[in-house]
Design brief:
This protein is α/β, with parallel strands linked by helices. Helix content is 47%, strand content 20%. The termini are far apart.
Length: 149
């Protein structure tokens, strides 16, 4: 298992934790020089938050970091990052994003790439299966999270 696969598995663990809590199963980890400095999962349901997507929770849990740290990080996320999370990735200058899957939802990968961010899509079958299970069970919650209804 290479480093990207290892950290994507941790992001998937976070997504599974969110699912078990009754939330939206999207997980993320922020890695600096091979070490996890922040991990999190979507907590919109659990915390009644409008902004705590998986990536945002991982960044929040990493705490304030100097710009030099962000510029050496990779963020792993089980689902393609939405406009809010992509904007935050750009704001902090995170140079690499590893996406678990983008078949369920295609986020702002083109924008990230256009701004020089390296985006790798793993097409991880377990990330996709978890999202499909969740959407089948709670379509209204999924639609709320992505702003469809």
């Amino acid at each position: 298992m290479n480093e990207d696969e290892k950290f994507l598995e941790v992001a998937l663990e976070e997504a599974q934790k969110g699912y078990a809590e009754g939330g939206i199963p999207i997980g993320s980890v922020l890695v600096h020089k091979g070490k996890i400095i922040g991990r999190g999962h979507n907590k919109r349901v659990q915390d009644g938050s409008v902004v705590l997507h998986g990536e945002m929770d991982a960044l929040e849990n990493a705490g304030r970091q100097p710009a030099s740290v962000y510029k050496e990080c990779t963020i792993y996320t089980t689902l393609s990052p939405c406009p809010m999370c992509s904007g935050t990735i750009l704001l902090y200058g995170i140079p690499k994003v590893v996406v678990g899957e983008n078949r369920t939802f295609m986020g702002e990968e083109a924008l990230l790439r256009s701004r020089g961010v390296e985006v790798t899509v793993a097409d991880h079958p377990d990330c996709h299966a978890l999202m499909q299970k969740f959407i089948a069970e709670k379509p209204e919650l999924w639609n709320e999270d992505i702003g469809e209804e």
